[in-house]
Amino acid sequence: MSDSKTAQDSGQPVQGQAVHLDPTLDAFGLGSSQAPDSSTRADAAFNELGRTFFIGIGGAGMSVLAEMLHQEGVAVSGSDVQESAKTRHLESMGIPVHIGQQAENLGQSHTVVWSSAIKPDNPEIVEAFRQHLHLVHRSDVLGLLMSRKRAVTVAGAHGKTTTSALLSHILIHAAGSVEALGSPSYAIGGSVQGIDGPMDGGHADEGSVFVAEADESDGSFLKYRPEIAVITNAEADHLDHYGTAEAYRNAFIAHARKAKGHVVITGDDAGAQEIIDRLDGETARNAIVYTTEDDSSLERFSGSVVRIVSESEHQGSGEERFDIIVPPSLADGRTRKVSVALKIPGLHNARNATAAIIAAGLLGIDMDAAATAAASFLGAVRRFQVRGQIDEVTVIDDYAHHPTEIGALLDAARRRYPSATIHVIFQPHLFSRTQFFAADFGQALCKADDVIVTGIFPARERQADYPDVGPWSIVDAVNAATAAGKASTRMSAVEDMNQAAQMIAMRAEPGDVVITAGAGDINSVVPVILHVLEARVGHMGAEHVDARIPLDR
């Protein structure tokens, strides 16, 4: 049932009136594992699209879908609030793009594509409902395009962007050895650091593989039927949508069962272990678990187990080094060791890279060739991204916004800079996440020496709905632990992030590390930190170190 049917049942909205949008509704029915002939159904779905209009067509996730539909022969147009390199690229392909969003932009469209970033009172959404147009979520189109490719999805509370970006990087640089693969298409939830600067996370190409970051936050990933489903972890998150950790993990189990080929899943967190234990027989036999732990807990597991061993960070180069032990079931009947050296630090990235290398191997790429390609990956933007060094103070920006991600980030920082005092400015993302995990955030942040928690980035939420939640929620949890003798980190709450940036920069000494962390707009204060550091030492011409060059080389 499409969203437009929901609107028809509830009456026509008028211009400016908010309408009900539900990203979990499956407009094409391709997510059902019971579909008798998914290729036939996909062909019918393409025919149903007609003229297709994308709201927010310039976004990384939307633009690549628009381009791929255009390649399939669908008449595509769209709108965005401002012109960008993406909108200009789409226009160069012959795709009309309206700058500014208004009802008349829809023209003769039959299908309108929206994403969860689009508000229900958007004038183009309201007009689509008024006309009873075929209104579909971005995930519907993503699932439809997957049916045309060898699809690999990457889902999980953490590591999705890095893992999907790394797999795409491997396919770009190592797929030449497998002629049938060609150049991949990918839809990644962030930009990727390249030698010549950041590369956009969306790309359409003619090859047979499509790598897609699968968003579990709203349940829409249940629409996908990939060839390979990668699950980087299943630690509870997005409880504002799911309600309980059990419901959250049930969604991952359902997602795993929809993989047509293999499930590649970590064995290193409790949520993932629960999923592994609850997989049905056939799904388990086709599952591959990668783990840093002793696999004795997987003795009754009927699939394959890949071990991550000898993991360390090389102090001279900063490389993350480890070996992957591949079992005979995945290596032509013999146990195989694959050595890996990454430029991105941390045990969590060893896990991410292992998942990507396994997926590449399942697609037909030699795992040693995949590991060699992985060695040149510079990381996704805002993932341990070094933004500069002033007066021997290193400034790093990271997207970490869940307690486990914060902990992994600070562990990586301690290993990379073992003698440094570590300062953190953390901007919580969502009031609901802060409410659920305040104590866990406090515990993770206590791995730093000096922390300022800023005002919460609300995203889709409102402060009025969470009057008792703020940056102080995390600080109070830490103060309670300090009173019990369990914490010694200096921590405070400062609502204004620009003020926080100035304070932390003034406290940093030569040899220290300053980290900005969060999924909102905290990265916007990095120039403030660098400016204060420059002004403090009195040389505005201080050399900035490009984030693409490791500082310790």
Description:
- Strand 21, helix 16 and strand 22 form a beta-alpha-beta unit.
- The termini are far apart.
- Mean pLDDT is 86; it is low at 1-16 and 540-553.
- By secondary structure, the chain is α/β, with parallel strands linked by helices.
- It has a ten-stranded mixed sheet, sandwiched between helices.
- Helix 7 (160-174) packs across helix 12 and helix 15 (431-445) runs parallel beside helix 16.
Spans of at least 5 consecutive residues whose pLDDT stays below 50 are 1-16, 540-553
- Structural class comes to alpha/beta
Strand percentage: 15-25%
Determine the number of helices (DSSP H or I, runs of at least 4 residues): 18
Mean pLDDT over the residues: 86
| Helical coverage, percent range | 25-40%
Anisotropy-based shape: globular
Order of the strands making up the biggest sheet: 10-7-11-6-12-13-14-15-16-17
Number of strands: 23
CA-atom Rg in angstroms:
24 Å
Distance between the termini: 56 Å
The biggest beta sheet reads: 10 strands, mixed
Outline of the structure:
With 553 residues, the protein is of the alpha/beta class. Helix content is 35%, strand content 20%.
Please write out the topology.
Blueprint (H helix, E strand, L loop, with lengths): L2 H8 L27 H12 L2 E4 L4 H12 L4 E5 L4 H8 L4 E3 L11 E4 L8 H8 L3 E4 H9 L3 E6 L4 H15 L10 E3 L4 E3 L2 E3 L2 E2 L5 E5 L14 E4 L7 H4 L2 H13 L4 E5 L3 H9 L2 H5 L1 E5 L12 E10 L6 E7 L9 E7 L4 H16 L4 H8 L10 E6 L2 E6 L4 H14 L5 E5 L4 H15 L4 E4 L17 H13 L6 E4 L3 H11 L5 E5 L8 H12 L16
